[in-house]
Amino acid sequence: MRGDGGDRLALLQEHERDIRAKIDDLNACLEIVHGKVTTYEQHLRDGTAAGLWAPAPATRPG
Predict the structure, then answer these.
(1) Is residue 49 a contact partner of residue 40, using CB atoms and an 8 Å limit?
(2) Using alpha carbons only, how large is the chain's radius of gyration in Å?
(3) Within 10 A of 40 (CB to CB), how many other CB atoms are there?
(4) Alpha-carbon gap, residue 49 to 42, rounded angstroms
(5) N or C: which end of the chain has fewer CB within 10 A?
(6) pLDDT band per the 50, 70, 90 thresholds, residue 7
(7) What's the rounded Cα separation, in Å, for the pair 33 and 37?
(8) pLDDT tens digits along 28-48
(9) Which residues fall within 8 angstroms of residue 5, CB to CB, at 6 or more apart?
C-alpha cells in the first residue's frame, strides 16, 4: 500500500491524531476557564467579588 499513497495516508492519519490531541487539550483548558468564569459570575451576583482578583505585583529578581 505504500506505493499507492500509503505514505501520504499515514502522514494524514498522524496529522489527524495530532489535531485531535490538541482539541482534547484545548477542551480541558476550556473546562478549567469555564469553571473560573462561572465561579466569578456567582461572586459578582453575590456581591463577594471585591478583592477576589488581586494579581500579585510582578517581582524582579534581585
Answers:
(1) yes
(2) 23
(3) 13
(4) 8
(5) C
(6) very high
(7) 6
(8) 999 999 999 999 999 999 999
(9) none
* pTM beyond 0.70, yes or no: no
Instruction: Report residue 61 as a C-alpha cell.
Output: 529578581
DSSP annotation of 48 = -
Q: Which amino acid is at 19?
A: I
- Residues composing the chain: 62
What is the spatial distance between Cα 24 and Cα 17, in angstroms, rounded to a whole number? Answer: 11
Sequence-ordered alpha helix ranges (H) in the chain: 6-46
The helix/strand/coil state of 54 is coil
Q: Which grid cell sits at 49?
A: 467579588
